Amino acid sequence: MKGHVFHGPGHSAWEDVPDPGIKEATDAIVRVGTVTVCGTDLHILDGDVPEVRPGTVLGHEAVGEIVDIGGDVRTVRPGDRVLVSCITACGRCRYCRERVYGQCRGGGGWVLGHLIDGTQAEYVRVPHADLSVHPLPAALDAAEAVLLADVFPTAYEVGVLNGRVRPGDTVAVVGAGPIGLAVVAAARLFAPERIVAVDLAAARLDAARRLGADAVADAREAPEQLIADLTGGLGADVTVEAVGAPETFELCTRIVRPGGHVANVGVHGGPAPLHLEELWNRNITLTTGLVDTYSTPTLLRMAAAGWLPTAELVTHTFPLQRMEEAYDVFARAADTGALKVVLGGEQHEIVPFEGKPTEGGDGS
């Protein structure tokens, strides 16, 4: 079969790899139909995740069909259409019993495309399948459903729930990439008074408005002043860092009000300053976290009912064999306007944010 293989920082290729097989009785083998590329995949290629070994198939999000299962798998069977979660859960360790699946100590957590071969291939082995794949509603389109493998659970759990968004809040989302935009959409479910999106790219700020942001700010044009003006000088109740850069993290700590919450979602490849000399007396709550995906079943029901604008994030589609082209388009988002690129699945017309239709599979 073919897979997208990491060969060290800056090097990867779509090439022949061994077919996966059942190794444990809790495994499932999934024929991959639809995948996407995550910002974390770009961090891996940049060398920010050194535990990923050369030779690893990348990817941790997929929709596909079960083709084989181990003898202990009970919740799915061959022929089932499923969502492959970005997080694998053994279901037995202390963390899994507390639904903190991202910290699983039984061979789970974030392993796909990280510690073992991932989903950017024609087939993938999924350990602990009973808690790590989810049957899909028939009405849910694969290109939309794949965003529930990581993007929306991360935004919902690590951004909105960890940030404790409440009715009447002012929520500032710093970074309007796919995760930040999903935070905007998910925060709306909690009836905040206003959501402010901050980014450098005008196209992404326009997308944030379409997804529910009440105000937007160019990161180069004093977003602190806009937040101050909107809140009477108080600051945002919740700030969500959705980039993974020192500058954006510091901005979040500057614009949050005393007693507010800073929810860090971004993947940081290096240190970020924490100015405790300024924050120690402001009663700030700072949360970090890897997504646990305990919310995935709920989000699947919400998506099937039309409550989550997943399709709004898909700007480009490709066949699986054009994986390297898809990575290039996603990595050059400032030039291409890419938010989420989807590979395989149902190749249908997507209307990107530039306003010109993109024919499925051509990536233009």
Regions with pLDDT < 50 over 5+ consecutive residues? 346-364
First-to-last CA distance = 27 Å
Globally, the shape reads: globular
Computed Rg: 20 Å
* Mean of pLDDT: 93
The CATH homologous superfamily of the largest domain is named Medium-chain alcohol dehydrogenases, catalytic domain
Instruction: Classify the fold: give the CATH topology of the largest domain.
Output: Quinone Oxidoreductase, Chain A, domain 1
Q: Please give the CATH class of the largest domain.
A: Alpha Beta
What profile does the largest beta sheet have? 7 strands, mixed
Question: Under the CATH scheme, which architecture of the largest domain would be assigned?
Answer: Alpha-Beta Complex
List SSEs in N-to-C order.
Answer: EEEHEEHEHEHHEHEHEHEHEHEHEHHE
Can you give the helix content as a percent range? 25-40%
Number of strands: 15
Percent of sequence in beta strands: 15-25%
**How many alpha or pi helices?**
13
* Category by helix and strand content: alpha/beta
Number of domains: 2
Cofactor: Zn(2+)
Keywords: Metal-binding, Oxidoreductase, Zinc
Protein name: Alcohol dehydrogenase
Organism: Streptomyces ruber
Notes on the protein architecture:
By secondary structure, the chain is an alpha/beta fold. It has two domains: 2-150 and 293-344, Medium-chain alcohol dehydrogenases, catalytic domain (Quinone Oxidoreductase, Chain A, domain 1); 152-287, NAD(P)-binding Rossmann-like Domain (Rossmann fold, 3-Layer(aba) Sandwich), CATH 3.40.50. It has helices spanning 39-45, 94-97, 129-132, 142-145, 151-161, 178-187, 202-210, 223-230, 246-255, 276-279, 296-304, 323-331, 333-336, and strands at residues 2-6, 12-16, 28-36, 62-69, 81-84, 123-126, 133-135, 170-174, 194-199, 215-218, 236-241, 256-264, 285-287, 314-318, 340-344. The strands form three sheets. Strands 3, 4, 5, 6, 7, 14 and 15 form a seven-stranded mixed sheet that branches. Strands 10-9-8-11-12-13 form a six-stranded parallel sheet, with helices on both faces. It has a two-stranded antiparallel ribbon with strand order 1-2. Helix 5 (151-161) packs across helix 6. The longest helix is centred in the middle third of the chain and has 11 residues, at 151-161. It is globular, with a radius of gyration of 20 Å.
